[in-house]
Each structure stands twice: as C-alpha cells, then as structure tokens.
Design a protein that fits this description.
alpha/beta
Length: 415
C-alpha cells in the first residue's frame, strides 16, 4: 500500500508540473479571447488532468482486472496519449524559455544603464507559444489515426525463401504465418473477420500461429472463437504459446486459478483446430518426403523461459528440413544458431514492430530495433533463416502507426 501511495504521488506531481508549464501557453494564447471562450479554454484544460489522476488512483487502489482487457487498454492509452502529447508542448516552451533566458542575460550584461532594466520583461514568443499548443495536437492526432485506420489495416507480406535441404515434393509449399493475435484487445470484430478472410484467400498449404492468443486471460478469446476457427489448411494449422498466454501479468486469487486459466487456453487452441506444440514436433509427410515442424513454449531473454528446445527437437535428426515455431526472436541467437544449425527456418513474432515505425522501400525504422536485434522481416545467417512477423493484433495502444498488422505468406523453394 505504501509503495502504491508513493508511486501515485510521483505521477500526480509529474502530471501537475507538466500541466502547470503547458498552462502558461494556454494563458498566453487565450489572454485576448472573449470571456466565455477564455474561461472554457482555461478551465477545460484541467479536465483531462483530473480524469487522468482519477484513472491512476483507480488503477492503483482498485482491481483493474475486474474489467476486460480492452477497457484497460483504452484507459492506459488515454493516459499515455494525453501526457506524451503534452511533452511536445513542453519541448517548444523549453526552447522559448531558453531563448528568453539568453536574451535576459545578454541585456543584463549589456552597457545599458541599470535603471533601464527595471521592470523590463521579455515576453514569450507568440510563435513558439502557439507552436507548443499545436505540437500537442500532432502526436495525439497521429495516435487517433493509428486507432481508427491502422489497427486493422491488414497487409500481406509475401516472402520467398530458398532452402537447400527442402525435399522435392515440398518445393513451392505456401505457409501462412500469424502472430500476436491478442484477442482481448480487439474492438472491431468485423475487421478481424476480414483479416482472417484475407488469410484464407491466399489458400496456404499450412498455417502457423506463433503465440500470444490473449493478453492475460484465456476468456478473452471466447468472443473470437467463431472467427479464428475458420483458419484451415490442407497440411494443418500449428501453434505455440507466447509470453502473454500464461497469465503471468495478472495477480491471480490463487495458484490454482492461474493453472486453470492456462488449461483453458490450451483447450481454446484445440477448439480452434490449432495443433498446439508444447515442446513437441510434428512430421509432415508428402510423396514419401518429410519435413519437421518443431514448436516450443515461450522462450525469451527478458521473460520466463518455458520452452525446451532439446525436448521438442528430439527425434527429428533424420528429417532433412526443420521449421521451428518460437514466439520470441531473441531465441534465435541465444539457442538456435549456436546449437541447432540444422534448423533451416525459425518463425517468430512478439515485437509487434512496436506498433510504430517507418517502412519505405528498403528502409525500416522502429523503436523496437533498440530492444531486439531481429525485430521485423527476414534475417539470414549462413544457411539459417529467421522471419519475425509484425503481429496481427495489438497490445496496450489499440492501434498502429506506420507498422500495420501483418499476414505473412512464405513460399519455400528448393535452393
């Protein structure tokens, strides 16, 4: 309780300091406005502040898990969007105050008589003051656009990969990969159905899902069972778990409740028709040729490691082509490349491409790249490949800016 009080107090002080600073621009801009508009602007400025502080107090002292994860996401998004946007205003005002300070110092040490300095005030720059308030609108508007337009703007990424060990009968096989569905975050079921229909129109031979079906609780997927159970492919639909599937980020009433939640999640995969690989492998045979699909539980450098690659790999030695499904791409450098050089292709997700970035031609940038060496797209080292899917859903911020949700179609060819 004491820790929560201190944390809440820290945020309240930080919010008020930011707001008091930005409020100076509000006062300056509205000083010549008619009284009703001036009052509306000045009093209205503090309404989001009070709402944010109230939301924080509720978050710290109530139980946010009593509401669904979608509502939690909207609350946190509102808090983040409000104060992230205001930080842009702070930057402009800081520049303005910096230049005012420089001018004041210059005048103070100038050769003007001392009496000429009395009462002299260097006013705020009208341009920078207006720019500060305008600057809050741009990031807020971008985030709103990312929710309205970007959250379900599904894109198909088509990738051809040449594998030297690929058997002849599997030459040209088409695999659809989805990752990071995060069903508890969805707010537009019709759009999600459209994304699934896009997958089916590609007529893949196999479908792989590389983890994070939910945010925290297995119950989140119930409303979307009739959507994702349409995913079917001639050679099967295979899945693995991600870090969010274990309920590790929720305070459960008991250990048994958490265990039951995970059992329900496993059952959800079965009802969806997904063959969930829990540190297991499956051998796919076609015209006498075989490939191995290896799937492990979540294994990530920053998260609890449930995956047992040695266990899943056992028994695949004689299979020429091996495809690994592992949620976190950091697993590739940590275990796969050093110890399993005969795994031809690993498929991952997890990063979401940070749900924010820029991709123009061959150039791509996202804050995700500062946390993960491999964060989106295709990577190759020697004869091994890694593909990192940017995610089908979203977490936290219910939108995407410059990093649209992805459906990957991989065509495997003989080298």
């Amino acid at each position: 309780m004491r820790y929560r009080m201190i944390t809440l107090l820290f945020f309240v002080i930080a919010f008020f300091l930011i707001d008091i600073y930005v409020f100076q621009a509000v006062l300056n801009v509205s000083k010549s406005w008619p009284s009703p508009w001036k009052a509306m602007m000045r009093y209205g400025f503090w309404i989001p502040t009070l709402l944010c502080i109230g939301a924080l107090a509720w978050w710290f002292f109530a139980d946010p898990y009593k509401i669904n994860s979608g509502a939690r996401n909207w609350i946190m998004t509102g808090l983040f969007a409000t104060y992230f946007s205001k930080l842009f205003a702070v930057l402009f005002l800081f520049v303005d105050d910096g230049q005012r300070l420089v001018k004041w110092i210059a005048r103070y040490f100038s050769k003007k008589p001392a009496e000429s300095m009395t009462g002299e005030v260097i006013s705020r720059s009208q341009f920078l003051t207006h720019a500060a308030l305008a600057a809050t609108v741009i990031p807020f508007g971008a985030m709103a656009y990312g929710i309205i337009s970007g959250a379900h703007d599904y894109r198909v990424k088509r990738i051809a990969i040449k594998l030297p060990n690929l058997p002849k009968s599997f030459d040209g096989i088409r695999i659809a990969q989805l990752s990071d569905i995060h069903s508890g975050s969805f707010f537009n079921k019709t759009a999600v159905k459209g994304g699934v229909e896009m997958v089916l129109k590609e007529k893949p031979d196999m479908i792989f899902f590389t983890g994070d079906l939910v945010n925290n609780e297995s119950s989140e997927v119930k409303g979307y069972m009739d959507v994702f159970n349409k995913l079917r492919a001639p050679l099967g639909v295979f899945s693995v778990t991600g870090n969010h599937d274990y309920g590790d980020y929720k305070n459960w009433a008991s250990k048994e409740d958490k265990q039951q939640n995970f059992k329900d999640l496993i059952e959800a995969h079965r009802l969806l028709g997904f063959d969930l690989l829990m540190n297991q492998h499956r051998t796919i045979e076609q015209s006498g040729d075989r490939i191995a699909i290896i799937g492990i539980e979540n294994w990530g450098g920053r998260f609890v490691k449930y995956g047992k690659l040695d266990q899943a790999y056992a028994g695949t030695d004689e299979v020429s082509t091996k495809i690994l499904l592992s949620h976190d791409p950091s697993h590739w450098d940590a275990q796969v490349r050093p110890g399993y050089q005969d795994i031809d292709l690993m498929l991952s997700g997890h990063t979401h491409g940070f749900q924010f970035g820029v991709e123009i031609g061959g150039f791509k940038w996202s804050p995700s790249q500062y946390a993960y060496k491999q964060w989106a797209g295709l990577y190759k080292e020697d004869d091994q490949y890694l593909y990192v899917n940017r995610g089908f859903g979203y977490l936290g911020y219910p939108g995407r800016v410059g990093m649209p949700p992805e459906i990957t179609i991989l065509e495997l060819k003989r080298a």
